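Incident log, support desk, overnight shift.

02:14 A customer reports that sequence design results differ from what the structure should imply. Their input is reproduced verbatim below. On-call engineer (initials T.W.) acknowledged and began investigating.
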């Protein structure tokens, strides 16, 4: 193990000999702890034929090991007053538990065990295939999701961001148990993982516990770099979905910036101005409103749309800045789309006041502060930053980088982002909407 260091922020960081990065933060305001294991693998790392495999592996990780049978896992967590879950996204997969601090040892042992010993029993694979196909069908029944999938496939022609996290139906139907198990063995290894512990714990003690539980696991090979860079878009793209329903939807998406881009925080402020602040914290419980955003005032207050939203995504590679609107009854898709373009055109032309900028800066700052209070949120942020950026201090420095953004920065990124020849527009046109 390399030398463990505790920074001025009180966070212990080290790397075990097998490549596992470990972050531990002591917070003693409540007798609670949260343990996370992050893996640098998601739908971004999938190939045609096995799209959705990372999400399916996540499901299988709850089916038990010889040491922790599936029937015992939920009981063990709930009996100790805890909660647990997992998430798979474009760039990452993470598993977490939140328990009384004196019970967290069990979670560390559980995560180390299922890093190596998940069973992937054939009958469980087939059972879960049915579950995931049902989940996929549920998504397809949502007009907005169905349109989003089509927009994604049109906006990304090369990069694997072009498919959704759940994967293509044909791949879910045809993937084998070996496809799942090989993906698990290839990617769910210490050298591709980050372990995070936050809560009412002793950092030095729990570093020894984590090393004892994880240190013997073979390092494995790091996930290969994704080299399929999306080429520049040379003109507007459009997609129309015709399907049953009563309500039309419109999506407008622009290529955006990656999380490490110098303009990421300027785009975050722009997002707040246009659509309302976006939370990047999947554990967020903050209640926010977009009623002061430009889109809400231009589309909802004028009764063009029943609802609007959108914004940016924090991602390893450039993703999309997306805007969506639910067309109000009696209104036309074309006039709603035109109203969206009118707002982005104004921003691209630099029509942003000092007062509007300062308000957006405060709103973005406040949302981040609300999203950083609990031990579970801090565990999320630390693992998220270390996994995507390679350095947890991105989380520590968030507010400093945000407050360094200027009005000129926001005007510049708006002009660069909202270009008509770069956008992808999607319409959902209900077939029984007369």
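02:41 Re-run completed on a clean worker. Output:
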């Amino acid at each position: 193990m390399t030398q463990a260091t505790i920074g001025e922020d009180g966070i212990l960081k080290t790397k075990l000999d097998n490549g596992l990065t470990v972050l531990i933060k002591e917070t003693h305001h409540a007798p609670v702890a949260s343990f996370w294991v992050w893996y640098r693998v998601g739908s971004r790392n999938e190939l045609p034929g096995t799209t959705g495999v990372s999400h399916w592996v996540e499901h299988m990780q709850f089916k038990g090991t010889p040491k922790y049978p599936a029937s015992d896992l939920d009981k063990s967590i709930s009996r100790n007053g805890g909660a647990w879950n997992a998430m798979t996204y474009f760039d990452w997969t993470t598993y977490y538990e939140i328990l009384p601090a004196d019970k967290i040892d069990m979670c560390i042992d559980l995560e180390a065990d299922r890093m190596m010993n998940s069973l992937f029993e054939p009958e469980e694979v087939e059972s879960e295939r049915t579950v995931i196909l049902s989940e996929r069908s549920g998504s397809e029944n949502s007009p907005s999701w169905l349109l989003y999938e089509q927009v994604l496939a049109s906006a990304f022609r090369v990069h694997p961001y072009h498919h959704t996290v759940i994967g293509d139906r044909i791949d879910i139907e045809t993937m084998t148990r070996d496809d799942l198990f090989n993906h698990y063995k290839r990617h769910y290894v210490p050298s591709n993982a980050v372990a995070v512990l936050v809560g009412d714990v002793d950092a030095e003690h729990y570093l020894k516990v984590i090393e004892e539980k994880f240190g013997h696991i073979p390092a494995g090979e790091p996930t290969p770099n994704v080299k399929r860079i999306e080429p520049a878009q040379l003109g507007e793209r459009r997609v129309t979905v015709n399907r049953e329903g009563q309500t039309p939807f419109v999506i407008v998406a622009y290529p955006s910036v990656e999380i490490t881009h110098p303009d990421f925080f300027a785009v975050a402020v722009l997002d707040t101005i246009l659509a309302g602040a976006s939370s990047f914290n999947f554990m967020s419980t903050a209640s926010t409103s977009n009623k002061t955003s430009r889109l809400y005032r231009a589309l909802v207050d004028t009764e063009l749309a029943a609802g609007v939203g959108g914004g940016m995504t924090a991602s390893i590679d450039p993703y999309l800045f997306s805007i969506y609107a639910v067309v109000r009854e009696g209104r036309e898709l074309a006039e709603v789309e035109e109203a969206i373009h009118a707002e982005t055109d104004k921003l691209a032309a630099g029509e942003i006041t000092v007062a509007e900028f300062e308000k957006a800066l405060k709103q973005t700052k406040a949302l981040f502060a609300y999203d950083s209070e609990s031990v579970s949120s801090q565990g999320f942020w630390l693992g998220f930053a270390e996994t995507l950026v390679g350095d947890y201090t991105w989380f520590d420095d968030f507010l400093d980088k945000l407050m360094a953004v200027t009005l000129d920065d926001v005007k510049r990124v708006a002009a660069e982002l909202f270009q008509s020849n770069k956008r992808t527009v999607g319409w959902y046109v209900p077939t029984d909407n007369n």
